[in-house]
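Exam prep: given the inputs below (a chain plus 2-acetamido-2-deoxy-beta-D-glucopyranose), describe the expected output before reading on.
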Amino acid sequence: MMFVLLVPAVLLLAARTTLVNSVASPLTYEDKDPLTGEPVQCDRCPPGAYLRASCSSTRETQCAQCPEGSFTELWNYIDKCLRCGVCGHNQVVKKACTADSDCQCECKQGYYYREEFGMCVRHSECPSAQGVFTKGTPEKNTVCHVCSSNTFSNFSSASHNCTAHKNCIDAGLQMVLSGSTWHDSVCANCTELKDGADYLREIIPAFFVHQKMNIKRLRRIVHKLPSEDGKKKGRTSELNFSELHAQISAWAASATAKHIRQFPDMLIKSAANGSGERLQTKLNHIDAHLIEQCGLGSVAEGVESSA
Ligand SMILES: *[C@@H]1O[C@H](CO)[C@@H](O)[C@H](O)[C@H]1NC(C)=O
Ligand SMILES: *[C@@H]1O[C@H](CO)[C@@H](O)[C@H](O)[C@H]1NC(C)=O
Ligand SMILES: *[C@@H]1O[C@H](CO)[C@@H](O)[C@H](O)[C@H]1NC(C)=O
Ligand SMILES: *[C@@H]1O[C@H](CO)[C@@H](O)[C@H](O)[C@H]1NC(C)=O
Ligand SMILES: *[C@@H]1O[C@H](CO)[C@@H](O)[C@H](O)[C@H]1NC(C)=O
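Solution:
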């Protein structure tokens, strides 16, 4: 459905018409002859025109075309066309104003019309673990759905649907962590063995996107991220969510396996107990699968003794 501007002006005209002229033809109106003072039936002006001069007993109604930027939509006897509407904030012209119709507006790309606010608002994004079921339109918001089994989404988006988990076996690899709604499956190559923590690092960025952690706690965690040289991160008090997530991703990509392995415990010590425990559970699964799939006694020692 479109929404049309300046509806009230048109309604007003219609109302006035009914009052003046409840019985006569809808295409005429009653006026007084300027010379005799007797009532006369005058023709109305068609849509796209306005009344320049009323009729008399000897002269027909004179109409004139609406000037550029104005319009009339109904048969009328107004002495001035209505001014064309102007599209509002976050709107674009859907149909330009013509002499016989006002312009129509719609929400611009990425926005939809919110009836209760009477304005265009941004399409919602579907959070991680959910995909876009139906994309938003100028009239409707995005519709999200929870990713079904074997699919995932690891970021918020107003356009992205869930994607299928990768298949480790088809790629000639072993699966060490099965995919969930918010992360992909994690595969290992048993002939190129790595510490279990090296597989956990793949899902750490998605983990923090998915956890709805408050920003203070996230800043404290980023501040405490250990680095090679033992130095902590600098000021984190002014970083926003996207910057904090970027720092965690960068850290996860470059941290040593030892630091990654200590990470769940660090979360617990930062009072993010639940998150720490969930990540520890993921690491335990990876370790167990590595032993099972790659036939190892103990993964951590296995890596060291083979080095
Ligand atoms: C998203 O995926 C679901 C399930 O496969 C499908 O029914 C839906 O049509 C998809 N939506 C879009 C926008 O592709
Ligand atoms: C697994 O690692 C070995 C040794 O590096 C390599 O030759 C092989 O191509 C890898 N397999 C896959 C499927 O990547
Ligand atoms: C999301 O998953 C894809 C595919 O596994 C991966 O390449 C990407 O880095 C992930 N993004 C985040 C934020 O974890
Ligand atoms: C976060 O801060 C950066 C740099 O100040 C800025 O470019 C970005 O738009 C901010 N992101 C959000 C989501 O506010
Ligand atoms: C989180 O851990 C701290 C310290 O180990 C403990 O005092 C607290 O009770 C724990 N909170 C929850 C909710 O488990």
